[in-house]
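Archive entry. Fields below.
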Amino acid sequence: MVKKKSFIRSFIFWSLIVLVILFVTYPFLYMISVSFRYDTDAFEPGLIPERPTFDTYLQLLGFKQSIREELSDEDEQLKNLVKNMPEEQQKEVLAKIGAQRKKESFPFIRFFRNSLVLAGLSAFFSLLISIFGAYAFSRLWFPGKSTVQRSVLIVYLFGGTILAVPLYQIFVNAGLTGSGMRGSVSLFVIYIVQTLPVSLYMLGNYFRTIPETIEEAAIIDGSSRLGVIWRIIIPLSMPAIVTVYIYAFMIAWNEFLFASIFIRPYPQFHTLPIGLNEIFYSEHAIWAKMMAASVLTAIPVVSLFMMMQKYLTGGLTAGGVKE
Amino acid sequence: MGRRSHSPRFIKGGIVMKLSAMSPLKLKEAKLGMKLVTPTVLLIALLIIYPVLYNIYLSFFEVSISPTESNVFIGLQNYKNILTDPTFWISFWKTIAFTVITVVGSIILGLGVAILLNKEFPGRGLVRGLLLLPYVTPLIAIVFAWKYVLLPIDGPLVRLLASVNIMDPGTDIINNPNNSFLVVSFFNIWRNFPFIYLMMLSRLQSIPSDYYEAAEMDGATGWQKFWNITLPELYFVIGSVALLRGIWNFYKFDEVYLLSKFAGTLPIYIYEKAFAGLPEQGVAASIATLLFVFMIVLIGVYVKKVLKW
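PREDICTED_STRUCTURE:
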């Protein structure tokens, strides 16, 4: 009797586990499956592709031209076509066609590079600023300290939605709009601020767990406070520092609202979220490419997270990470 | 020699007093502290505090789009326009409903999964890793996957639901203003429940097991143990998580907008007023100000009544 009951229990338990796993992984299974198909096969039913291929990945990463470019001897034809035209007209026509082609292509690598530079740099500066700030919060006393600490936390109350209009106006007035480069600089600064509260909070909590006696010994030996930060605090806090960097990186890697406000008109500077979204609405029937692009966008962040899972989940529950 | 123990002595009097009353070493430390937080203070003052105030200021103006023209002061006109605009009120109630549905939904789901995983079983590490996927995958990547499975006729999930007669395969549930609100809520719950599950699990694991053992000796059923031990122990985690998720979801833009432009919550309304078509940034600023004031009041009440701080 007891055995039967425990069998039913464990059956229910395992069915629930399977259900939860299916619920969580459902869209991922299709994302991966479709990414290994040709665009034309994107809607064949079933999860296992009938004609699996790496083509979309190779195209996105620039190892292979798209089928259209490959099949047609477009370049040859073009040259023949413009041969009889006057020189000036030739240039103009070629430039026009070139621009048209660029529009049709899928500049995934460019989006990826832009995102990497922007997220990488802003996370780095956010980390740098917050190491100093968090050290001051956790170890030094200075006038106005508690006010500053509280106002850092208040940032949690302001979503990007509230700040979008005034920040746009401020950056327009500061002359930091109107070109892709300036827009990217605006984003860089905004991403630093957006990630700063989380970084300060998590690092501050971690620094407080390091015994002050270690530092006092170093100070008695003649080390300066900055020397202490560099030689003691940073090496001892490496897990927290890596965690904070990954979080700051993820926030910038995901950011869409401000990117759409500041760099939408400048495709050369598009980051992944804005670039992929624009392509999605301007092209048709490129599901396989979109899915491959999604997989490639997810890989850096997800693999970083899985590698550091132990530290990252700890940080997540300790910090209440801001979104 | 705890440095913090010195601070109470300097509470009275102005900053100058405090500094001059300090020993040279303390003075040096205080100066260093101020230097170290200067970048933080500057950035937050310039890019958070000032914009919030500037937003309130802008809400009384008709904001010009070109930098050469100056803004025109129109007093409370923006507010009058909004509060009499039925679209605003529809969006407002949709936002409230979205926030309530997603907070309650993700807490129930997160709590359920946390209780399920709060015991040893083979493969638990793997399941835990998989559970975090919805939350850590970049938004733009996972949004396309959901758009794909929900496509009318061809989308696998739509095919599945149609085959059991739950829905008509031809409906575009994402881009239909009547449904998209629910789809977006569902997506938000799916994406954010892992965050809640993590918070709950770490709290669950800190409940001493003797509580349960004692209850078992008194003959408590599983359900009674849940109501009388687990829930009271989780009260503050649930309260805090609900607060955080409530704030974030109330302001949520990207998770809603990228999945469906037709969900019609207030952040989307603000965005479209400010940056699409003929921009009316003064109007957008006044909506943002209203949201902000509403939020502050709500948070104040919540923190007092629910979290009892």
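CURATOR_NOTE: Residues 156 and 275 of chain A are 28 Å apart (CA to CA).
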